[in-house]
Amino acid sequence: xxxxxxxxxxxxxxxxxxxxxxxxxxxxxxxxxxxxxxxxxxxxxxxxxxxxxxxxxxxxxxxxxxxxxxxxxxxxxxxxxxxxxxxxxxxxxxxxxxxxxxxxxxxxxxxxxxxxxxxxxxxxxxxxxxxxxxxxxxxxxxxxxxxxxxxxxxxxxxxxxxxxxxxxxxxxxxxxxxxxxxxxxxxxxxxxxxxxxxxxxxxxxxxxxxxxxxxxxxxxxxxxxxxxxxxxxxxxxxxxxxxxxxxxxxxxxxxxxxxxxxxxxxxxxxxxxxxxxxxxxxxxxxxxxxxxxxxxxxxxxxxxxxxxxxxxxxxxxxxxxxxxxxxxxxxxxxxxxxxxxxxxxxxxxxxxxxxxxxxxxxxxxxxxxxxxxxxxxxxxxxxxxxxxxxxxxxxxxxxxxxxxxxxxxxxxxxxxxxxxxxxxxxxxxxxxxxxxxxxxxxxxxxxxxxxxxxxxxxxxxxxxxxxxxxxxxxxxxxxxxxxxxxxxxxxxxxxxxxxxxxxxxxxxxxxxxxxxxxxxxxxxxxxxxxxxx
Length: 533
Hints:
Elements: H1 29-39, H2 43-56, H3 61-73, H4 77-90, H5 95-107, H6 111-122, H7 129-141, H8 145-158, H9 163-175, H10 179-193, H11 198-213, H12 217-232, H13 236-255, H14 258-267, E1 276-280, H15 287-295, E2 300-304, H16 308-318, H17 326-331, H18 335-353, E3 361-365, H19 373-379, E4 384-389, H20 392-400, H21 416-436, E5 441-445, H22 446-451, H23 453-463, H24 475-481, H25 509-525
Parallel strand pairs: 1-3, 1-4, 2-3, 4-5
């Protein structure tokens, strides 16, 4: 785990070296071979190859870490934990080991576990700036700004200069209302990291939000376009993956009927019922605020943006289907397979929650899951649905005006026209689904939630079959004390409910022009036509 004095701007610095154990940190041929087998879908052979690599190279950290992260990709958390535990036992006092373990938990969006492992690393002799700065980032997201600043100052005193340092420092300065200094920090990051780097994209995204908050709407568009232009130059692989998924989903949406849903319900009639619900709609539609309200109910537990339904179920259901239409593949899934996936889903969510769901209602919150509602209904026909709505123009603007790491979803948000087209795809799907589903559902408008959170939370809870509980309105206390939000809205949702995001699109009407025609049918359908002026 060699320390790299001058890490590249777009690369994560390696954990600091230590004499605590004679470890190496190399991508050896045996590790690469195991990973290649795994990536090609030869899972059994991949497991054997990973285990062989660990036996042959017991002091090679990469043998453990690549294996553990591969297991996590297939939701095999038991095997992942065994592998990480074996690494920690090999070198319990090596700070770099705990740093890598923390990074692995971070990839799974388990901030509490990541934070605990980074803190263990930081407490050990030989820990260094990379660990301190990861801690600073997590402290900032947990609203522990003083501790984040202490980690930053420790890093500065050590003489290290990381892009992450400038990014987190700028965020804290912005949150402390030191806007001039924050802008200088973000611009310095762009200059240091290189205008085309991912670090620069994040800095431009922060500047766009700052400019928007200051009422400098032209400046916000100028900043975010710098970010999106750089991302568009690197979009090809993500666009191809997005197109593949969209083709699959469009086909399914066009073919599915009420009879399919009835068939799935009847096939699961003998299975023990589960209390499950899905909160979706579209990114930036207020799902995070609504989830936090509902998750404060004592008879409900929510999971935030986990990928079992959107990632694992398509893989399982499409395996070996060849040219068979995806809907036919869904209809052909056996009862035994459905029962297996129901158990896997609950086990997956309980692992990530870190506690049993028990008899409580489980709310799966993912704003990008509208197209996959049929997949959820395939394994849990009893699923209740809450659809978050917001003025489509505010939705598209908010998706465009924010930095998001490139993936098959966010690649659609690199200009307003494509964002509107993706919105239309999802919402047309919902308009069809709501005509054919029998399960309880409701639509909750963000604007109504902001105006009267009690009434809208009560409506959503009634759809979930839950009674009212006053603790729902105390959600912000939980956020500040213990609840971790991993979505981009982590900062905004911790603030008192505000109205300034309503109708924000009007400040950007000219920039939104390419999107307005595609959005018009939904503006009318969801009752926003009277807010056009």
